[in-house]
Design brief:
- GO terms for molecular function: acyltransferase activity.
- This is Glycerophosphocholine acyltransferase 1.
- Keywords: Acyltransferase, Lipid biosynthesis, Lipid metabolism, Membrane, Phospholipid biosynthesis, Phospholipid metabolism, Transferase, Transmembrane, Transmembrane helix.
- The protein contains 15 helices and four strands.
- The strands form two sheets. It has a two-stranded antiparallel sheet with strand order 1-2. Strands 3-4 form a two-stranded antiparallel ribbon.
- Helices cover 74% and strands 3% of the residues.
- A hairpin with an 8-residue loop joins strand 1 and strand 2.
- With 478 residues, it is mostly helical.
- Among the domains are: 80 residues, no CATH class; 239 residues, no CATH class.
- The longest helix is centred in the last third of the chain and has 80 residues.
């Protein structure tokens, strides 16, 4: 009853009944007596308030069940009734209904306004998006037309690149021959400049194609030795023995072994020919045509050099240079770097040469990759030693040395002629046609992709408009 009284007084709010004005509530816990007592009247601030109080005196609470309120436990069990609170509850309910009706009317008006605003926003958005899509479509069509117009210039660029390579290659061969015949000493700086340019380009190309482990191969180390001898150790007879035997041995004979070709329009082919041929031409110039007064020492009894024994030449070139390189290459590339090469997809010469027909017997002998590498290394060592034995004659004979150089030049030219007349005539035209077709297909695919993108973009615009409208309506409803 006490809680009911407090709730009615606080929530209904009667004008002639204030709990703070009429009553003081004393609550005793734990089942003690609960009494509602009239409060002492406060001092009125005006005569009007006193008149109102006299005219409408507050009703006293009347006990409904009066059984003297005393039980055996000493508590007051009477129930109190407040008639003015009941009337106030009815008036408060009518007030709340009016407030709800007014709020409902305001909500309907706000919903109508928000709906009109959402429709106006959707219309403006669709118009703006349509204009943007139209501008984008026009711009993409212009770009597509420009790309389609670039078919012919791209082929002209390819032809221009091949023309430049062809011209540079021919001029290089002619200048090399002129230098050897007119001023052999100047072939040394010419060779150094060409080695720097071609090997730098090859490193950049191999690095881009994950083939830079090719640069650990024997021929690149031999070319490095020629540069070191030319500029840093020109008076070292041991170093000249090494580069001489390597040049007339495995390097020179790699031209027929790997079928190197003087394909003038191909920078890659001409670089391979230079790597295998230029050390032989350099040693030819120094051994037979560069006097020792220029500071390049060949042997102690120049120009005959008969006191230099074949054993000395083989010992310096094979035992001092080749075998240490072979051990280093096997340990570094085949063992230490094997995992790195596999994980990163790098290429090495072994993986390519083992698939060629002359080395097919290695794959037939064993399927173990490490054993295949051992066999390949042994074959490489035998090839190097055998070609060095053939090259011994060039140390003692100018004619033999000149014949070997001319043979390698002629063999590379013969391979190039076969390429130009039996392969290049058809392959080059097919290559140009393939590039033209690939350009057309790629640009057609690009145009189709742009068209599909525009179509999907228009569909997405409609979906976005519907999504915006539905989202705005849902938000207004909430």
């Amino acid at each position: 009853q006490f809680l009911y009284f407090i709730g009615r007084c606080l929530l209904i709010g009667q004008p002639h009944w204030r709990i703070s004005d009429k009553f003081r509530l004393h609550t005793l816990c734990c089942g003690t007596r609960t009494t509602v007592m009239p409060a002492s009247p406060k001092k009125k601030s005006s005569a009007a308030e006193a008149a109102n109080e006299d005219a409408a005196p507050a009703a006293e609470p009347v006990p409904v069940n009066d059984d003297n309120g005393d039980d055996d436990d000493g508590t007051d069990d009477r129930t109190w009734d407040f008639p003015e609170l009941e009337d106030g509850g009815k008036k408060g309910g009518a007030r709340r209904r009016k407030i709800k009706e007014a709020a409902k009317k305001v909500g309907e008006k706000g919903k109508e306004k928000s709906s009109r605003a959402a429709e106006a926003f959707s219309s403006a958005l669709s118009t703006k998006v349509g204009k943007i899509a139209e501008r984008t479509s026009k711009a993409s069509h212009r770009v597509t037309e420009r790309l389609l117009d670039k078919d012919r210039p791209s082929l002209e660029v390819v032809l221009l690149h091949d023309k430049i390579s062809y011209t540079v290659s021919v001029v290089s061969i002619v200048s090399m021959a002129f230098t050897i015949g007119y001023a052999p000493f100047w072939f040394i700086p010419w060779n150094t400049v060409m080695a720097f340019l071609l090997l730098s380009r090859r490193w950049w190309q191999f690095r881009k194609e994950n083939q830079h482990y090719y640069l650990y191969d024997f021929c690149y180390w031999a070319n490095l030795l020629t540069v070191i001898y030319s500029w840093f150790l020109p008076r070292s007879t041991t170093l000249f023995h090494i580069i001489f035997m390597v040049a007339v041995g495995p390097l020179g004979w790699s031209i027929p072994t790997f079928t190197n070709s003087m394909i003038f329009h191909s920078a890659a082919h001409m670089t391979s020919v230079f790597i295998h041929l230029s050390p032989g031409v350099l040693t030819y110039a120094v051994r037979w045509h560069v006097p020792q007064r220029y500071g390049y020492k060949v042997c102690d009894d120049y120009p005959g050099c008969w006191e230099t024994s074949p054993w000395t030449l083989l010992r310096d070139s094979y035992l001092i240079f080749y075998l240490p390189w072979a051990v280093f290459y096997f340990v570094w590339v085949y063992i230490l770097m094997e995992r790195r090469i596999k994980e990163r997809g790098y290429e090495i010469l072994f993986a390519w040469i083992i698939e060629q027909k002359p080395m097919a017997f290695v794959r037939r002998m064993t399927s173990n990759v490490m054993m295949q590498k051992v066999i390949y290394s042994a074959v490489h060592a035998v090839f190097a030693l055998g070609t060095m034995f053939v090259g011994l004659a060039a140390w003692y004979s100018h004619a033999v040395h000149l014949t070997l150089v001319m043979f390698w030049v002629g063999y590379a030219s013969w391979n190039a002629s076969g390429y130009y007349f039996s392969v290049f005539a058809k392959r080059y035209v097919d290559e140009l046609q393939r590039r033209a077709m690939s350009h057309e297909e790629s640009h057609a695919a690009l145009a189709a992709h742009l068209h599909a993108t525009h179509a999907s973009g228009d569909a997405n615009v409609g979906n976005e408009e519907a999504s915006v409208t539905s989202t705005t309506t849902a938000s207004d409803t909430n």
